[in-house]
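Just wondering, does anyone understand what follows?

——
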Amino acid sequence: MSEQKNHQQAQPEQDLSQQTRVRREKLEALQAAGKDPFQITRFDWDATSAQIKDRFDELEGQTVKVAGRLMSKRGMGKVSFCDLQDRDGRIQLYARQDEMDEAEYKEFKKYDIGDIVGVEGEVFRTQRGEMSVRARHITLLSKALLPLPEKFHGLTNTELRYRQRYVDLTVNPEVKRNFILRSQFIKHVREFLDGRGYMEVETPVLNTISGGATARPFITHHNTLDIDMYMRIATELPLKRLIVGGLDRVYEIGRIFRNEGMDPKHNPEFTTVELYQAYTDFNGMMDIFEELLSSAAQKLLGTYQLEWQGERIDLTPGWPRLPMHEAVKQYTGLDFMAISSDEEAVAAAKSIGVELPETAERTWGNALYEVFDQKVEEKLIQPTFITMHPVDVSPLAKRSPRDPRLTERFELFICHSEMGNAFSELNDPIDQRQRFQKQVELRDRGDDEAGMMDEDFITALEYGMPPTGGLGIGIDRCVMMLTNSDTIREVILFPTMKPLN
């Protein structure tokens, strides 16, 4: 009962208990009279609230059937007004005793806010000009045994909103809008890639090793094979096997699982789209990412100008492309290209208050990356591609032909948030084995986020993979931006929550 008390917030617990008891008594009376709403199996509606409003001139005077949840009741005696909420929004119901069966009207008067009903009636406009449905028949389709939060928008306890998303969606229209936009964005991603000759595929969620990223995996056990298995932390390695097999453009939209911390930008399970294209490089991936995201904003919101985390974001195409070492020099004054030794690089990082993680090797590349991560990333507001990452932190990216310490890799940052990660994919099996081996050594030293050796992937590369560009995009982060949400929990229907018990 304590959770229901939070749910109602302004209502004393005894009042809520009384409301619940009364609703159950109403249900029992209906069942005793042979009118159990839970025995009704269907209602064939033919119009929604939005369709009635959009096509009012055409539908005025016509009979329609609508279905949804009662969100308000007002009026006394022989005339009642209600707001009916369906999938598209709300429409007013107008019910008069002398225009309905008298017994049916009296039953309707006993219905509660939150009940789900089917209504048959004519489309008309009230004297006040409101588009409405004049009810002739109202059928109770489901009885709500718990009351909705007070005044329809009273569910403001953030944690409770995530735990009871079904109530959140019912009483907070902006929440439903967020998830409609999420669905539309994913549809846009598919249409965008399908239109460019990409093939959507599916790859395993369970794997015998964790690979394709540096992250702590979830571990489970396969009883029949009696082996531990890892829930995927990326879809990269299976997708690149398909490039080897001749599927030149592939992508997968799917859930990723990482056994790591939770904060406003991270949930243990999240959604990505990864795409791989043969015969292109990371520059080609930058072009695709910029066009994909900017076109989504224009198509879904009608503008390149967005508000996110208190900042004004401009997604007009033509985003800067800035090598990591240049960004570090611009924002900190440290010129890593003038530093040649690992010791000097680590000392330079320390001089501005940057410490390397205990598990990281004390190298030039790790020092450069940590300076960027700790001092520069937070300053990137407008869309910016940060390119040429150190090889030490990019075990799957192709080395730069101009500087073997760097790779042809980029990450896109918007409003100090990483939105995606891409490479010119490493296709040299000998180099790949050496980099996997470094990851194995890091894991042996206690870094449980380091990668593992994937012998089968190396075998695939030995058969030959063409030059390839690959890109991974965080769907949740993109939706956060498009909906101006400040936490990932606002754009995941059922975020991971600690059990109440």
Q: What stands out?
A: The radius of gyration is 29 Å. Residues 173-194 form the longest helix (22 residues). The longest strand covers residues 63-74.
